[in-house]
């Protein structure tokens, strides 16, 4: 018997590990200023509780770094004959099944940080907003290939309706 989030007949493709580096960079950018402010205040005042606050925040960032790496390893997608599967999540797992015939259009996006790390995102739009799926962290050539393949499969399935 197969697991609901890991069907037996599926070979999963992984996203680039550079996605973890991009997300970790974002986390560090967000938390660098608060930690720096706490350290400056701690140096100026000499209060122990401010040092403890800075240390707790730094430990929280370290935990987020470890968690981000595991979250990225949990992301996968699989192309099957009639649909695309997208899975993600560690504690709260999610498996989205998008039938090719329901796809309306496919977007490929890459912001400045994503371009710096050499990754892009593919977003699938369907007739139902609830089944919109996103695959983050693909190399640009793979994102373009997937976009073309999904668009052609979607058009072929729509023509058959």
From TrEMBL:
Source organism superkingdom: Bacteria
InterPro entries found in the cross-reference section: YdbS-like_PH (IPR005182)
Domain YdbS-like PH residue range list: 73-150
Record keyword Transmembrane present: yes
One Pfam family named in its UniProt record: bPH_2
Spans traversing the lipid bilayer: 20-42, 48-67
Record keywords, A-Z: Membrane, Transmembrane, Transmembrane helix
PANTHER family tied to this protein: TRANSMEMBRANE PROTEIN-RELATED, UPF0699 TRANSMEMBRANE PROTEIN YDBS
Name under which the protein is recorded: YdbS-like PH domain-containing protein
């Amino acid at each position: 018997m197969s697991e609901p989030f890991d069907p037996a007949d599926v070979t999963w493709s992984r996203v680039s590990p550079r996605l973890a580096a991009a997300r970790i960079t974002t986390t560090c950018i967000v938390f660098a200023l608060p930690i720096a402010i706490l350290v400056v205040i701690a140096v100026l005042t000499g209060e122990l509780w401010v040092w403890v606050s800075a240390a707790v925040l730094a430990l929280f960032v370290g935990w987020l770094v470890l968690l981000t790496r595991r979250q990225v390893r949990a992301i996968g997608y699989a192309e099957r004959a009639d649909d695309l599967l997208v899975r993600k999540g560690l504690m709260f797992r999610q498996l989205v099944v998008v039938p090719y015939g329901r796809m309306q259009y496919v977007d490929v996006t890459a912001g400045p940080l994503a371009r710096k790390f050499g990754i892009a995102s593919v977003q699938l739009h369907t007739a139902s907003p609830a089944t919109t799926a996103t695959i983050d962290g693909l190399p640009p050539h793979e994102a373009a290939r997937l976009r073309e393949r999904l668009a052609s499969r979607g058009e072929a399935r729509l023509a058959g309706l």
